[in-house]
């Protein structure tokens, strides 16, 4: 090859390498750093009942396959998971168990992303409503609406009077500790179908007239979560449509929530592994992370 031709080739090669190097440097400079992500909340966030269990704190019955772990694995976020089964709004600022710090202690000004479910354990709403309606359903043989007839608006009254203000206070405590973070407050996926399914009574023994009653209690809880989120600058992640048709009465592989009886989870009436994955996917879509 003539010398002048060789010089042209070498010049072009050096230029190309230089351009590539500049491109790589520019791409690195503009790469999105991984998020500092803190997961707060109760058993629906902890994935209680989903294996494998996180051995670092067995009191909280936290799963390493819960939706926060799915989000972190998908996005590359640095996750600090302080979710804990049975947590109430008070446990954002108070210790839930000896050695289990208030959940907001995990937050800082450097926190970028926070997700949570909370409120279902305040007033014992979930466990009391399901226990009351399940017992009434068994005693009535699935007929009528014995739970509604006995308890009326008591559950929703407690949610409005107690849970709603507690939610606002909890979310304000989150904002105070992590003023720069994006906060996502998730609603609870549907536990019951919209109407009674006679084939489900053995698994979820709720009287026919109490199925919509129980669903109405959950809808009211989700509504106050949404309201508290909006009033404190958080993003509400609505599962009312996404979880429709995936309630505890559906078959394995379709349901996100395990039934009260004859389910496949250590903790009944909670999301299974599929439910936790779908909660993660929907949350990422809402937040624009997927």
Description:
This protein has 290 residues and is of the alpha/beta class. Helices cover 42% and strands 7% of the residues. The protein is built from eight helices and five strands. The protein has helices at 3-29, 43-46, 67-75, 125-140, 146-151, 154-177, 210-231, 273-287; strands at 36-39, 78-81, 113-116, 182-186, 235-237. Strand 4 (182-186), helix 7 and strand 5 (235-237) form a beta-alpha-beta unit. Helix 4 (125-140) runs antiparallel to helix 7. The longest helix is centred in the first third of the chain and has 27 residues, at 3-29.
In short:
The protein is α/β, with parallel strands linked by helices and 290 residues long. It has eight helices and five strands, in the order αβααββαααβαβα. β4, α7 (210-231) and β5 (235-237) form a beta-alpha-beta unit.
């Amino acid at each position: 090859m003539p010398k002048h031709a060789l010089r042209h080739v070498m010049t072009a090669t050096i230029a190309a390498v230089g351009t590539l190097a500049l491109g790589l440097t520019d791409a690195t400079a503009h790469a999105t750093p991984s998020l500092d992500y803190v997961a707060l909340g109760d058993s629906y966030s902890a994935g209680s009942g989903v294996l494998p269990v996180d051995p670092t704190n067995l009191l909280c019955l936290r799963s390493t396959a819960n939706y926060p772990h799915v989000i972190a694995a998908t996005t590359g976020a640095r996750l600090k998971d302080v979710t804990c089964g049975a947590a109430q709004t008070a446990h954002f600022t108070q210790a839930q168990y000896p050695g289990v710090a208030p959940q907001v202690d995990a937050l800082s000004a450097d926190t970028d992303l926070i997700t949570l479910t909370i409120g279902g354990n305040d007033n014992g709403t979930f466990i009391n409503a399901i226990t009351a309606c399940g017992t009434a359903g068994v005693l009535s043989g699935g007929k009528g609406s014995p739970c509604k007839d006995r308890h009326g608006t008591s559950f929703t009254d407690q949610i409005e009077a107690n849970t709603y203000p507690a939610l606002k206070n909890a979310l304000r405590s989150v904002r105070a500790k992590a003023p720069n973070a994006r906060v996502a407050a998730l609603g609870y996926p549907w536990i019951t179908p919209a109407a009674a399914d006679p084939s489900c009574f053995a698994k979820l023994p709720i009287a026919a007239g109490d199925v919509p009653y129980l669903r109405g209690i959950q809808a009211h809880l989700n509504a106050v979560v949404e309201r508290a989120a909006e009033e404190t600058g958080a993003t509400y992640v609505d599962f009312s449509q996404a979880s429709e048709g995936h309630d505890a009465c559906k078959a394995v592989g379709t349901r996100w929530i395990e039934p009260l009886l004859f389910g496949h989870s250590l903790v009944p009436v909670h999301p299974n592994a599929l439910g936790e994955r779908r909660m993660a996917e929907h949350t990422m879509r809402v937040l624009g992370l997927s």
